[in-house]
Amino acid sequence: MDFPQAFLQNMRAQLGEAEYALYLAAMAQPFTRGLRVNLLRYPDGTLPLSLDGVEEAIPWARGGFFVRFSARPGLHPLHEGGAYYLQEPSAMAAVSALDVRPGQRVLDLCASPGGKSTQIACLLGGQGLLVANEPVPARAQVLSRNVERMGVRNAVVLSALPDALAPRFPAFFDRVLVDAPCSGEGMFRRQEEARAEWTPQSPAGCAGRQLEILSQACRMLRPGGLMVYSTCTFNTVENEGVIAQFLSAHPDFSPEPFSLPGLCDAPEGMAHLYPHRMRGEGHFCARLRRSPDAPAAPETFRGPCRAGKGRGRTAVPAWGPALDACLSQVLSPASAPRKEALLAGAVAFGDALYAQPEGLPDLSGLRVLRAGLLLGRVAGKRVEPDHALAMALREKDALNVKALSEEQALRFQHGEALPAGEDAQRGFTLMTLYGCPLGFAKCSDGLYKNHYPKGLRR
After folding, report:
1. Which residues pair with 6 in a beta bridge?
2. Looking at CB atoms within 10 Å, which of 38, 260, 362, 434 has the fewest?
3. In 294-335, where does DSSP find H-type helix?
């Protein structure tokens, strides 16, 4: 590979001659690949079948597995069903260091494409609140689609700059992740464009922006909470240098030691991940604790969730009966308590009806892409169940279920109608593969008529 000469000089100075040689040898090898099992689908962290190319477990990430370089698990229908997320192994370390617990309120401030957000969602286990934010609107759309694909029920997806979020969430979150935009040196082995875009000025330019992001992120962490700052770059300017400047300006924060299985210990609260020291690409993680004596959040800012600018919020009771009828078409009688909970937490954003997470503050004026679980959309006098609802269901929750073969699953994701047997129940049916939801079909006239979104069809 052709690396920038200034970058190589920096790495030689940073590592020393002996370790620099090991680093260069590692960079000449194929990059490392991995996947992370969706714990919301499979809580034990194992898939219901053996996928070709999936190897041993990644020790520092629950549900993580190394993947053989030549394997293509993204082509399997389970991938689009959200059974797993393809993610570089070292990138899983930041969320592991964040120490997320069920029921917490967590912010992923720079979240696209969604690998770390969906990892957080798995650790929350459907409890608490995840706010996943991506300032770039096009990238936020990708983030929102991945949150939907993985069946996350308790996430809000926003597209806002950090300085617009900080006044809305003062000292609000138990955990904050800042996976900051960086010079991307850790991706040089796998991304030619990262090598081409790098200049000797890149680290210093990125460091200024990273400090600005951290200065807003810290305002949203509650006293005693944890914040993890991570990058996918090697240089000390964007890593230790940024942390040193941040700590100097924010005495209510301090580094917290941590240790992750299979990786080096971080007694000073910071860890460099290099490809010659571990099986992965480049990453840096710093864990910071906010003092319990820091100012607490004012209670007055909290209120009911409202839509973003230009998207009027309406009272759901106007659509209550139609939404009730919609849910009754897809949920089993045994899921009656869950249906009542969904109805109780429902809000309307235009024609979209969401079950919003509890404790969500006012979002008016913000660009909201997803305000919890999208239950359905108003169509005339009825409500049509949304694909997001299907992806958040388990087989035992659904009124009608059709278990597909892999060949049928591919046909379904292609948009085809499938034949239904004489004993098939009419109405909305959850199509599944190995227990993983793929989407809705509607059974009538001897066919499962396809409701898989056209924009997602393979």
Report:
1. none
2. 362
3. 320-330
- What would the pLDDT profile of 216-255 be if each residue is shown by its tens digit? 999 999 999 999 999 999 999 999 999 999 999 999 999 9
Query: pLDDT tens digit string along 361-382?
Result: 888 899 999 999 999 999 988 9
Beta-carbon contacts of 316 under 8 Å, excluding residues fewer than 6 positions away, are 323, 346, 347, 348, 353
Residues with catalytic function: 232
User: Tell me, what amino acid is at 57?
Assistant: A
Tell me how far apart the alpha carbons of residues 149 and 82 are, in angstroms, rounded to a whole number: 5
| C-alpha 251 chain-centroid distance | 30
Strands of 202-328, DSSP E: 221-231, 253-255, 270-273, 283-290, 313-314
Collapsing DSSP states into helix, strand and coil, what is residue 313?
strand
Residue 156 DSSP symbol: E
In the chain, the amino acid numbered 100 is V
Burial of 417 (0-12, 13-18, 19+ CB in 10 A): middle
Q: What is the pLDDT of residue 302?
A: 44
pLDDT at 304: 40
Place of tokens 């929102």: 144
Compute the residue count for the chain: 458
DSSP structure string for 329-347:
HHB-GGGHHHHHHHHHTEE
With cut-offs at 50, 70 and 90, classify the pLDDT of residue 56. very high
Cα–Cα nearest to 226, from 179, 292, 162, 167? 292
C-alpha dihedral sign at 92, 94, 95, 97: positive
Q: What order of strands is seen across the sheet that includes strand 313-314?
A: 313-314, 346-349, 352-355, 373-379, 382-385
Q: Which residues pair with 283 in a beta bridge?
A: 273
CB 180 within 8 A of CB 110: yes
Q: How far apart are CA 378 and CA 186, in angstroms?
A: 46
The pTM is what?
0.95
Is 128:105 a contact under the CB 8 Å cutoff? yes
* Encoded tokens for 332: 């089993």
